[in-house]
């Protein structure tokens, strides 16, 4: 079993900053992938980067939710 005790908090400025930075990075990667003149191989790479960042963000949120089953917070707001 994974120790999730370090995810047991109500609010944390570092956590908020990490999630915001991840969201900004995801937006940049998606914007880059949408450039019309982009080569298909590079576009695929950019899409993969956006997906990886999104998966990482969701894994962090899932860890927080598992560590705090009685708390409901919308991190996407």
Structural notes for this entry:
This protein is mainly alpha-helical. It has a domain at 36-66. The protein has 2 helices and no strands. Helix 1 runs antiparallel to helix 2. The radius of gyration is 15 Å and the shape is elongated. The mean pLDDT is 91.
Question: What are the defining features of this structure?
Answer:
mainly alpha; elongated
Low-pLDDT runs: none
Number of strands: 0
Q: How large is the count of helical segments?
A: 2
Helix content: 55-70%
Straight-line distance between termini = 30 Å
From the spread of the alpha carbons, the general shape counts as elongated
Mean pLDDT, all residues: 91
> Helix- and strand-based class?
mainly alpha
The profile of the biggest β sheet is: none
Strand content: under 5%
Q: What's the order of the H and E elements?
A: HH
Radius of gyration: 15 Å
Walk me through the topology.
Elements (H helix, E strand, L loop, with lengths): L12 H21 L6 H28 L10
Helix pairs in contact: 1-2
Summarize the structure.
By secondary structure, this protein is an all-alpha fold. It has helices spanning about 15-35, 40-65. The model has no long low-confidence stretch (mean pLDDT about 90).
